[in-house]
Amino acid sequence: MAAVRDASAVMAAPAQIVVDGVSHLYRPPRGRAVLALERVSLEVQNREFIALLGPSGCGKSTLLYLIGGFLPAETGAIRVDGNPVAGPGPDRGIVFQHFALFPWKTVRGNILYGLERQGMPREEREKRALDFIELVGLSGFEDSFPSQLSGGMRQRCAIARTLAFDPKILLMDEPFGALDAQTRGLMQSELLRIWQRTPKTVIFVTHDVQEAVYLADRVAVMSARPGRIKTIVDTKFDKTDPHVHKAKAFVEKVDELWDLVKDEALKAQGVRAP
Amino acid sequence: MARVTQIMPADAPGGLPEKAARLVYWLFGAFTRVFSIVLLLAAWEILARSGTFTHFQLPAFSEVVERIGSDAWSGDLWINTALTLYRALTAFAICAVFGVIIGMAMSRSAIANWFFDPIISVGFPMPKIAFLPVVILWLGVYDVSKITIIVIDAIFPVIAATVIAIQGVERELIWSARNMGANNRELLTQIVLPAASPQIMTGLQVALPLSLIVAVVAEMLMGGYGLGGAMMTASRFANSTGVFAGIVEIAVVGYCLVKVMALIRRRLLIWHQESNEPTTA
Amino acid sequence: MKQVVRYLPLLLLAIAWELAARFELVSTTALPPLSDVIRAWIDLLKDGDLVSNGLSSLYRAFAGLGLAILVGATLGIVMAWWKPANVLLSPLVEMFYPLPKSALIPVTVIWLGYGDGSKILLIFLGCMLPVTIGAFNGARSSEQALVWSARSMGANRLRMLWDVVVPSAMPEMLNGVRTALALSFILLVSSELIVAQKGFGYLIGSLGANGSYDAMYAVVLTVAFLGFAADRIYLVITKRTLAWRE
């Protein structure tokens, strides 16, 4: 029933993203270095939506930053389309939990920035910015500053900014973690709608089991520090069904994943699992 | 300026049209603002006229105003104000440009940081005004040395604010810009500097009044034209009306500079939620 | 060792100074060698000039600053606590705060003459407002929840002022005091340079007038060092005092 696969299982098609035996040592400015990731391997297919699920501090964000090229991979290798990752690039767009919008730029200015850096001609980028503002439902707020927007609107703007420069891969770091429960629910279906219109490979970091099952095709469950990939679970459901939350299979899948994550969450809190 | 909030009436009277209510509200606010200042000036005038103090100790406010008026008529007031402003603002501009450049260099280059960090951390809390005689010894008593001592005093808050501001720029902002393909130079000018600008502005708002304080001291010590020099001349001739006129003039100049700076901040940082003004001098 | 590397640039500057003066790259009148300055400093210390002038300067600075803290803090907390005081005083605070305090030097001389009194008054007037504003902002921001919970535990108004408002005003007020400390040294030296019969500033001026520049440099460096040391000591003390804030 539950299609639990071994993390090291070899996939049939050539993967778009290959993470191969990556470890990462986090060195805080003060104090001892911590092993954040230990020999993590993962393959992600083109246009796949995969969620990284785990308790806070399990290194799931670190893994995302490594794939994004923001942190250097010291042990192991990360390849995208067969090329080793050497730094950030516009083929991998990132969306952060706290939006990271440029506060001195308007919604339009934020979205235009990436297009300017890509050297897109003026008229084309103005038009493209408007298209993406419309796509995320921010029409009418083009000239607002981020400080004038609600949390949900800020995250829409951040998503539009990243989608606008057309990355093949979307890296999302708990993008809805800073939003209230209702906004979060709306944003989830919004993201699926957008994803169906502009299909991309998505790696989505979250600690919310339901969110992971609802959004992703596959969920990689990570263990508490040092972070490892414990298992990968298939979670393909019909996302267009508005009542998918209530389906028996869906609920069972959430329970199954919750059991897997619970032990790790307890471990992360320093509680010995029963 | 001070973050001293005004107490306003809790509720505008109900029933009145909104415009009238707002006018009453505004008038009350303006009244409370002016009331205590008027009270102070009245007390000054009465105290001076009552003979409690000698004319030398406390000339009447009306005489001081008269004196300022005659200074304005003869043109001295404008020459002195312009000279003091020229010195203070030239020095301030130098502090702003080089302070930010040094601060940026310190946060970009380990060598610059190694060299400047101890100088800043030791030099910032020093009373650098003590170096005034040394500066006079080196550069004489003209504008160059006045501007130099102002720069020595006022550049430290700018450098310190720039360094702290750049350190405080969120990692995610920089990563986002890198992600979109910004190179190092674009990152610095288009992302780091704007993101750091509120705090750099705060440093500048500390440096500006400091520039004026030091300008006045330098003028007092070196003499010549300028608001400080004029005060010193008046004081030498035991002309206390002139001294008090000087204080009022300098106070007005200081108040205007601080207000203009706050206005510029609000304009430039319109995107910034809490454009709070700094609370230190 | 780490500290040595950290402060190495200062040492290098000192060596550069010594060499530049020794090899007469600059005029030795403008820049006497550091070693001469140190010798002059020891002489000044021996004949007592440095100590007697220094003590009178420090007395003025701390008397003025002490008064400023006492009055300034009280004023700030009263303004935050009692609305009529705020209505009456905040326009005055707002008006006098941007006044370049050095403009008061001649006035304090007119009022109290050339001695200690005028310096203490100047430092008191100049340093009071930063403390007032710090205390005011700190007391204003004392959390409503704290006030409410203290009230629910049956604290009366006065008790609450002492138990809740004053401690929460502390951090910002201590910041204001730090500004005031720096300001007190600036005002002290300025006023003594301009009009005084003793004190560091007076000593600097008279040594400069005599042409004994090495001694002048010695006093200038002493004052600069004292200002720096006062700030560091203050930081250590406040860190202890504020230990409750994590």
CATH homologous superfamily of chain C - what is it? MetI-like
* Basic shape of chain A: globular
- Structural category of chain A is alpha/beta
Which CATH C-level class of chain C is it? Mainly Alpha
CATH architecture of chain C: Orthogonal Bundle
- Distance between the amino and carboxyl termini of chain A: 26 Å
Taking the alpha carbons of the first and last residues of chain C, their distance comes to 29 Å
- Estimate the helix proportion of chain A, in percent: 25-40%
- Give the tally of structural domains of chain C: 1
Compute the CA-based radius of gyration of chain A: 19 Å
> What's the helix-strand series of chain C?
HHHHHHHHHH
Q: What string, H for helix and E for strand, traces the elements of chain A in order?
A: EEEEHEEEHHHEHEHEEH
Q: Specify the biggest β-sheet of chain C.
A: none
Uncertain runs of chain A are: 1-11
Tell me, what's the shape of chain C? Answer: elongated
Determine Rg of chain C (CA atoms, Å).
Answer: 22 Å
Give the percentage of residues in beta strands of chain C. under 5%
Give the overall average pLDDT of chain C: 87
Please identify the structural class of chain C as seen in this structure: mainly alpha
Question: Can you describe what's shown?
Answer:
The complex is a heterotrimer of chains A (274), B (281) and C (246). Chain A is an alpha/beta fold. Helices cover 34% and strands 23% of the residues of chain A. Chain A has helices at residues 60-68, 107-117, 122-135, 151-164, 181-197, 209-215, 248-268, and strands spanning 4-5, 17-26, 34-44, 49-53, 75-80, 83-84, 92-95, 169-173, 201-206, 218-222, 229-234. The longest helix of chain A has 21 residues, at 248-268. Residues 1-14 and 275-281 of chain B have low confidence and may be disordered. Chain C has 10 helices and no strands. Chain C has helices at 2-22, 34-46, 49-81, 83-96, 105-112, 116-140, 144-152, 157-194, 200-210, 213-241. The model of chain C has no long low-confidence stretch (mean pLDDT 87). At the B-C interface, helix 1, helix 4, helix 5, helix 8 and helix 9 of B face helix 1, helix 4, helix 5, helix 6 and helix 8 of C.
What's this entry about, in short?
The complex is a heterotrimer of chains A (274), B (281) and C (246). By secondary structure, chain A is an alpha/beta fold.
